[in-house]
């Protein structure tokens, strides 16, 4: 019969002397594991007489509990000592340079939209938005497009399959349908929370957004960006249009004076309609915008057609106004010297890190636009 007292003092001494977690674990297995010395003693209880078991049971179980507790206590103190040692040995050098991180950048189109918004907001315009998926009424009919106009053709416009009612939705070909959405005096809530609500005149809005046409070459991509402008009030005339656009161009290109000319043109939704050219200088192989012997076509504009006002529930005998529309990507290319439109949407990160802008340099008129 093993002497429990001797076994206990021997195990206790070895537990106290265990040098690390591994030695302690080996000791635990030796005493309390399946074939351990104390487990072996516990197994002998089954073969004892009831009297003997009543005497030996508490002794052996007590021994097991005390050894178990001693191991737990020793383990805690070994763990604490190991942690202390690790903390005093390891040093974190906070002065080391951080590993480089790839930074995103603001796409030139988005930068230019923000610049345009900053300039027009300063003139009292607010920003309106509408859906990319439009219906025929907003994109064409309300804008006075005749039924057989070529823009309504499958060759120019991305149409969806007709729905159950036979209606064909389309990808908007310009931002002009948002003019209609802003002017319509419907008293209806717009179908989505981000779509601008209809409002009564006076109206002064710009509409930045994506537009789509079936067109693809060095100067056209199937998706591109436009910015529309709309001003409606009682006594708006072409002089306001001219000042607004000339002021915008001078601020946008950060030049003093801008020469401009308005060439008669045709848009179904304006009368008269014009294309605005701005003076530029191409001599010396570099394009200088503002003044010079050459002209650069920059946007379309005109006085809102009375049919459009009527279609939107505004009385053309009481109100009139002007509208304009321009290509945002083209303005970005002109301002920042980007040679090919297709690169703008190729998502090449090398191109983006070259032409992109810092997200922390949001354009504003006080601290500079670019
Ligand atoms: N929607 C025209 C286009 O995409 C641009 C335009 C021209 C808009 C004249 C206007 C405007 O508001 O008055 O080519």
Q: Low-confidence parts, pLDDT < 50 over ≥5 residues?
A: none
The level of helicity is 25-40%
Shape: elongated
Small molecules in complex: 3,4-dihydroxyphenylalanine
* Main pleated sheet: 8 strands, mixed
Order of helices and strands: HHHHHEEHEHEEHEEEEHEHH
Q: Number of DSSP strands?
A: 10
% residues in beta strands: 15-25%
Classify the secondary structure makeup into a structural class. Answer: alpha+beta
Oligomer: single chain
Nearest-angstrom radius of gyration? 40 Å
Mean pLDDT across the residues is 92
What's this model, at a glance?
The chain has 370 residues and is of the alpha+beta class. The chain is 37% helix and 18% strand. The mean pLDDT is 92.
Q: How would you explain this protein's 3D organization?
A:
With 370 residues, the chain is an alpha+beta fold. The chain contains eleven helices and ten strands. Strands 1, 4, 5, 6, 7, 8, 9 and 10 form an eight-stranded mixed β-sheet that branches. β7 (270-281) and β8 form a beta hairpin. The longest helix is centred in the first third of the chain and has 40 residues, at 50-89. The mean pLDDT is 92. The structure holds 3,4-dihydroxyphenylalanine (DAH). 3,4-dihydroxyphenylalanine is lined by residues 174, 176, 228, 267, 270, 300-302, 323-325.
Topology:
Elements: H1 4-17, H2 21-32, H3 37-44, H4 50-89, H5 108-122, E1 126-127, E2 133-134, H6 136-139, E3 170-171, H7 177-183, E4 203-212, E5 223-233, H8 238-252, E6 260-265, E7 270-281, E8 288-290, E9 294-304, H9 306-311, E10 320-327, H10 328-336, H11 349-355
Parallel strand pairs: 1-4
Antiparallel strand pairs: 2-3, 4-5, 5-10, 6-7, 7-8, 7-9, 9-10
The chain binds 3,4-dihydroxyphenylalanine (DAH).
The site of 3,4-dihydroxyphenylalanine has 11 residues, from strand 9 and strand 10.
């Amino acid at each position: 019969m093993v002497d429990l007292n001797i076994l206990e003092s021997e195990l206790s001494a070895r537990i106290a002397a265990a040098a690390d977690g591994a030695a302690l674990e080996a000791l635990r297995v030796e005493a309390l594991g399946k074939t351990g010395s104390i487990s072996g003693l516990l197994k002998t209880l089954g073969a004892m007489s009831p009297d003997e078991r009543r005497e030996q049971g508490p002794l052996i179980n007590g021994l097991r509990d005390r050894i178990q507790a001693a191991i737990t206590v020793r383990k805690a103190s070994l763990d604490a000592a190991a942690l202390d040692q690790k903390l005093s040995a390891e040093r974190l050098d906070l002065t080391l340079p951080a590993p480089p991180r790839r930074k995103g950048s603001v796409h030139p189109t988005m930068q230019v939209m923000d610049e345009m918004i900053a300039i027009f907001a300063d003139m009292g315009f607010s920003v309106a938005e509408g859906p990319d998926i439009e219906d025929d009424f907003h994109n064409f009919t309300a804008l006075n497009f005749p039924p057989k106009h070529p823009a309504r053709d499958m060759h120019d416009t991305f149409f969806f399959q007709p729905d159950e009612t036979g209606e064909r939705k389309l990808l908007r070909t310009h931002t002009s349908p948002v003019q209609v959405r802003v002017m319509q005096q419907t008293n209806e809530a717009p179908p989505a929370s981000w779509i601008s609500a209809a409002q009564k005149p006076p109206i002064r809005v710009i509409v930045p957004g994506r537009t789509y046409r079936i067109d693809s070459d060095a100067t056209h991509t199937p998706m591109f960006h436009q910015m529309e402008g709309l001003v409606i009030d009682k006594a708006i005339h072409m002089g306001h249009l001219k000042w607004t656009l000339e002021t915008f161009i001078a601020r946008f290109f950060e030049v003093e004076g801008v020469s401009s000319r308005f060439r008669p043109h045709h848009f179904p939704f304006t009368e008269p309609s014009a294309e605005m050219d701005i003076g530029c200088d191409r001599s010396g192989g570099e394009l200088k915008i503002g003044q010079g012997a050459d002209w650069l076509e920059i946007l379309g504009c005109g006085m809102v057609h009375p049919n459009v006002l009527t279609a939107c529930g505004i009385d053309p005998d009481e109100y009139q106004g002007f509208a304009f529309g321009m290509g945002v990507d083209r303005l970005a290319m002109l301002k920042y010297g980007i040679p090919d439109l297709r690169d703008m949407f190729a998502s090449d990160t090398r191109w983006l890190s070259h032409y992109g802008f810092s997200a922390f340099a949001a354009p504003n008129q006080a601290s500079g636009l670019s």
